[in-house]
Write a structure and sequence with these properties.
Two copies of one chain form a homodimer. Chain A has ten helices and twelve strands. Helix content of chain A is 38%, strand content 16%.
């Protein structure tokens, strides 16, 4: 059963929860905006469905609701930001603002972030740059769920990479992807429905392929993009490693198996090599390379050429990266955001706890 | 049958061929260094095996052996370089030097390149940054061979991405990968041996999976990393699109299906939207984020943790990105570079033509 809520209803609700855990008005508004952007764009796994998860981490004092986020190291175009254990939902936009300011002055800006938490969808942060006619980059490491090629250990997160480009008459082109074969959100959907997953998404506790969506609970792992060595899983591993190094090793955050878990019932490592989780954000002015209008005209041409490509099958059209999310956003802004009952129940538990009106 | 040649022999031979097509001494030396680095590192498809291909493009006046490579647009940390139709083997190192200089002064440097040609292995250029204690980025677009998800047209090249990081006691960690499921070089090996390729590497002229390695000659295409939609081919498409946009659209080079072919017998598009092929190169000072020794100590720890990971199967160890190439380099520096007979014959044809000593 699904329930559909107007954006404004979920926005007020989410904001009030962040206020209830003592976020400032500004932070509550921003964190809400990041979560709602995810729900609007159809990425249900990263929106209000995670709200109670953030609250549980706050209860365990693993999220600081009143962080002192600051730059701890910098050059004209690079910086490291310490998130002071704040919500990644506010730390990452802070860091992206730093990158954008540097790019305004010097052409590009690059910020590695330590001591943060889950930052929501990477696309939110990358799009901040696009609004300034810049190319946006956003990555984060995450709780270890993925076994690198040939291993039987969870050593990497689904470590997403996002690249976002401003177009002219078309919406921004946004590549926002987990570097695993399947995003964890897709696995969760299969778990709820009890359906088998395709071979190549996960391995079981012995390291063999399995189609059982629950295998992660019994020692299994997600697989890197490429699925197996023959199909390039070492490339998915390499991309995920890149995200981990830029986000975690470069900033002084944790990395690899030491990245703290998002779920509050799992304890972080006892002797971690860094602080919190790490992100990496970047912005480059398009007109640092050529006039922005020229770039946009060519990107429009690129998009048109790919959209008009000959397809294998008439029923499946070419999908320009970012297009499905924008379609969802337009639809949900008008028709509301559907939530599964489990999420509604979860949010109503928060409502009861904080004395807010139930959904 | 294989023949093994000392590095110095192939270096002199290659250098003399570049001189014969009227490259300057400096360019001949540099282009040779890029090709030999590929052969040394075991990437046989991108080394001297391609030398006659460059010569044929020069004969067709599609490569300018005496280019005036220059910066045509810049900010303190960004630039666009016009390669004047020169060898990518010399244009890309020029651009990376620009990026490194900017990084020395401002923390990072980013250069998009137009009007270039095939630049050899991406790793060569990224490693130039690593030698300066910087993180190196290198990408290039390439002749269209890959069909994006759901399409039945070759619209993208194998568009490689490379990220290279300096470690402490370990060699640099280098992710250098085609964004297709299989690199074209691997397909060529299968074509020579006549062996079937795994499902998921290529599609035939009707857009269906095929294991026939020759399917590209009859209207087929390589597939993006991920192979099919269910296993994330839209991610491989997204990564390849990112490379194409940063290299081609951002610089004013060609992009998508208009990228000129490497093989001289295929004519470039009649009305291309840009100039030549495009690259994108970047360098970021590690100490722009934290002291380089701290970064290297953590990266060493990262490498050690991953190397010691529990494996699925005792016979297959965890491979740290860049490690196999370094092992090949150490071996081939000592024991020589093996070439298949077809490559030796090809080089000897060049020898006869330019009056050089045969191999």
């Amino acid at each position: 059963m699904q329930n559909v809520y107007p954006e404004a209803t979920l926005r007020k609700f989410t904001h009030d929860v962040f206020i209830a855990i003592s976020c400032s008005e500004e932070h509550a508004r921003l964190a809400t905006d990041v979560l709602l952007k995810s729900d609007l764009r159809g990425i249900d796994s990263h929106g209000v469905a995670r709200l109670s998860g953030y609250v549980r981490l706050w209860e365990k004092q693993r999220i600081n609701a009143t962080p002192n986020i600051q730059i701890v190291h910098e050059t004209p175009t690079t910086a490291t930001v310490d998130g002071d254990a704040g919500l990644g939902l506010v730390v990452a936009p802070f860091a992206m603002q730093v990158a954008i300011k540097k790019a305004q002055q010097y052409g590009s800006g690059w910020v590695s972030v330590r001591n943060s938490n889950h930052f929501g969808i990477a696309g939110y942060h990358a799009l901040m740059a696009v609004e300034q006619d810049m190319i946006g980059f956003a990555m984060t490491n995450a709780s270890p769920l993925v076994a690198p090629t040939f291993t039987n250990e969870r050593l990497l997160g689904t470590n997403p990479m996002c690249y976002a480009f401003p177009a002219g008459k078309y919406p921004p082109l946004i590549v926002d992807m987990a570097t695993s074969a399947a995003a964890n959100g897709k696995l969760e959907i299969a778990q709820r429905s009890g359906k088998a997953v395709p071979e190549g998404w996960i391995q079981d506790a012995t390291g063999q392929y399995t189609t059982n969506p629950h295998a992660l609970k019994t020692g299994g792992a997600l697989l890197p993009l490429g699925s197996d060595r023959e199909h390039g899983s070492h490339k998915g591993f390499g991309l995920s490693a890149t995200v981990d190094i830029l986000s975690g090793v470069l900033s002084g955050a944790n990395y690899g198996p030491w990245v703290p878990p998002f779920v509050a019932f799992m304890e972080p490592s006892a002797n971690p090599p860094g602080q919190g989780i790490g992100h990496f954000l970047g912005a480059m002015r398009v007109d640092g390379f050529r006039p922005a209008d020229d770039f946009k005209a060519n990107l429009d041409n690129w998009i048109e050429r790919f959209k008009s490509a000959k397809t294998v099958d008439d029923t499946q059209k070419v999908v320009i990266p970012g297009e499905p999310e924008l379609e969802a956003e337009q639809d949900r802004k008008t028709h509301g955001i559907p939530l599964v009952q489990a999420v509604v129940d979860d949010l109503n538990t928060l409502a009861d706890r904080f004395g807010l009106q139930r959904l």
